[in-house]
Amino acid sequence: MWQAAALLLCALFLASIARFYHPRFGFTALIAFPAGEESELPALAAIPHREYPRQFTYDGQFYARLALEPLLRDPAIDRALDQPGYRARRILFSWTAWLAGLGRPAWVLQAFALQNVVCWLVLAWVLTRWVPPRTGRLFALWTACMFSHGLLWSVRFSLLDGPSLLLLALAAIAAERQRIWSLASILGAATLGRETNLIGAVMFAVPRRRADWLRLAGALTLVILPLAIWQDYLWSIYRSTSLTGSGQLSPPLVAWMANWSKSLAMVSRDGTASPGFRALLVVFSLTVQLVFLLWAREPQTPWWRLALGYGALMLIAHPVVWAGYPGAITRVVLPLTIGFNILLRGQGRSFWIWYVLGNLHLIPARVLLPGFSL
Hints:
Layout: H1 2-18, E1 33-34, H2 42-45, E2 51-52, H3 60-68, H4 76-80, H5 84-89, H6 92-100, H7 105-126, H8 136-146, H9 149-156, H10 161-176, H11 180-190, H12 210-238, H13 254-270, H14 275-296, H15 302-316, H16 319-322, H17 329-332, H18 334-343, H19 351-358, H20 362-365
Parallel strand pairs: 1-2
Helix pairs in contact: 1-8, 3-6, 3-7, 6-7, 7-9, 7-10, 8-18, 10-11, 11-12, 13-14, 14-15, 14-18, 15-18
């Protein structure tokens, strides 16, 4: 019964995605390009695609443009990106879209729009390794992972977080099987998707012998080598600007506490109808997830180490990551949410208390896909 329910949710998810299809534009509505872009990439301008008012656009548009010019050879790509060096550093999923589209611009654009959907479906199967939906509890955990706010946000706007999560899940499998070189290879590829995927290196086991330390050093070299090579290529194009970041880190706890304060103030003033209520649900659930990890203490488990690493990232995230209602934080620390739900499977009587309090992000998540409601 529960497996059938999971399949039904997958069908509802795909039906929601189908609503974004347009006979002329395909699935480009998932990318959210801005209307009236003066410095548009010529290859993109030649392809019919859905556009939105600028206030409804999002970052996926930049990586979709990179998919049309994956080696940055056309100088027009620099004018089409808000931060060329920073965006180009996250090239992996632009490459995969280019390959899936066989280098044909119209196909590449559709591939980029849909690769989050494909990764979602693959992840739905991969997660059954840890939370197979065979019982009510396991079904609840699987649902909380697959319909988390961060993951649906990545799908809705064709972002990098969903595909990155899939790679980290595959890396967790390699870590559990103690396949150090497979783990290093997967993480090496993942760092080209998002540099924060380097946090996945915490899944390496702590060596006990000198030979194991040498193997770990070699594996860590393999992790950072792809990003180092690509960064060298970017240096040849952008020079010092290739090293610029997005400024997404801040002193510990500052932005986290500020978000608590702002959300509580808005809810106190305007009640639960306030957009601050959604932000409050998110910061509360993420905090509960981190508290649970600190309470559970399972350092021998790769998912615990990975989730804790992203929990630490949450505490030093810049205010710009928290900005909005609820903002980008749910997708930036998505492995924290997934790790929390995977580790929660072993809880006894306190299971449902932790589950409800740690998954309040599901409430704002339900509005991200048309026609879908949890």
